[in-house]
Amino acid sequence: FALASPIAPDFSRPCSDAILPGNHVPCCPPESTKIIDFELPEVRKIRHRPAAHLVDCDYLIKFELAMERMRALPKDDPRSFFQQARVHCAYCNEAYFQKEPPRDEPDQKLKVHFSWLFFPFHRMYLYFYEKILGELIGEPDFAMPFWNWDSPCGMTMPGIYLDPASPLYDPNRNVEHQHVLVDLSDGKKSKTKSTERGTTYELSRTGQIKNNLNVMYNEMVSGSKKATWFYGQKYRAGCNSKDDGQCKPEPGGGLVENGSHIAIHKFVGAKKPPYNEDMGNFYSAGRDPLFYAHHGNVDRMWSIRKALPGWRQEFHYRVDRDWYNSEFYFYDEKRNLVRAKVWQFLDTERLGYAYQNVDIPWLRSRP
Ligand code: C2O
Question: In DSSP terms, which residues pair with 337 in a beta bridge?
């Protein structure tokens, strides 16, 4: 059987406005003629990304300064918050053509959600974002915070993001949810119960926490053994979409992507039809600083899975070579356009970072 090609944006064709139902949104990054290949950094010391609800005041002041400076950069600087937010829009809402599209669909656009690209793409995105923050405060080893929503004390929006005067704030959120426990099952559990009793009620705080921990157990322990269950379905290039289900974008997400990850997006986004900006829609999610902390925790799940006891399948380096070689483009902290490949992003310590070692209560929360 012929090996399919890796997924990559086609940089020889122009980037275009992102496509939304009934709308087109500009999302293309500033142009650059020079592309360099990403190289793994020389790691002298591992930086630890802290849980956002546990950071101290010194850290917060540093982080706010970095965010303030990122927001203050000119809009055409690829490192500005404005441009960083667009990265998500471009890759998620079809701004790029796919290199080696399906043979029967030469104009196929690239999408990074609901497939095996989900975890690696977002890891890369955060990596460059974090390096830019560090550059802006002259601290190359600055580590961004993660939103520890899988642990009881982290199950509300982290307080540091809630001050309207802070550069971490975003007015486009669901204000009713500001101090409410997240529901990682996105209402499914409470709905089941309400029909049982014939009345609508909300879970108690302890009930909600238990429910969230059970969701995590299902996604991360019982439901993460097979590679596709965790990462998502295979999405390949250069095949024929008529006879190959793996040859189309969005073949299906993994349990974390479809479950807790989407639940948090919906929980934070404003209730504003039709798009529920910012977090409630892919095109606008990157405009909320909380997005990056949310994805920090999603990325942390990938690290945790790697360290779990028991067998966990990984994609085969030969059969699934196209996954390892899939590539995306980002601007680095020096404004270079960099081409990064999935295989370079499989081990966070080789990238120079790890996550603060906090308790993982869902490991003991088998439903
Ligand atoms: Cu690219 Cu949480 O989405």
Answer: 35, 331
For residue 159, give its domain range. Answer: 32-364
- Could you tell me if residue 280 is inside a domain? yes
User: What φ, ψ does residue 160 adopt, rounded to 5°?
Assistant: -65, -15
Cβ atoms of residues 172 and 200 within 8 Å = no
* Domain membership flag for residue 179: yes
**Ligand 1: centre distance to CA 282 (Å):** 6
H helix or E strand, kind and range, residue 121: helix 118-136
Q: Where are the beta strands (DSSP E) in 8-103?
A: 18-20, 23-25, 35-37, 47-49
Q: By alpha-carbon position, which residue is closest to atom 3 of ligand 1?
A: 282
How many Å lie between the centroid of ligand 1 and the Cα of residue 157?
A: 17
**pLDDT tens digits, 38-52:** 999 999 999 999 999
Q: pLDDT of 217-252, one tens digit each? A: 999 999 999 999 999 999 999 889 888 889 989 999
Tens of pLDDT, residue by residue over 181-203, are: 999 999 876 544 444 444 445 78
Domain tally, the chain: 1
179 is in an annotated binding site: no
Q: Is 265 annotated as a binding residue?
A: yes
Q: What is the pTM of this model?
A: 0.95
Is residue 221 in a domain?
A: yes
pLDDT in tens, 273-290: 899 999 999 999 999 999
What is the residue type of 16? S
Strand partners, 340: 328
Q: In what order do the strands lie in the sheet with 35-37?
A: 35-37, 337-341, 327-331
Q: List the CATH number of the domain containing 239.
A: 1.10.1280.10
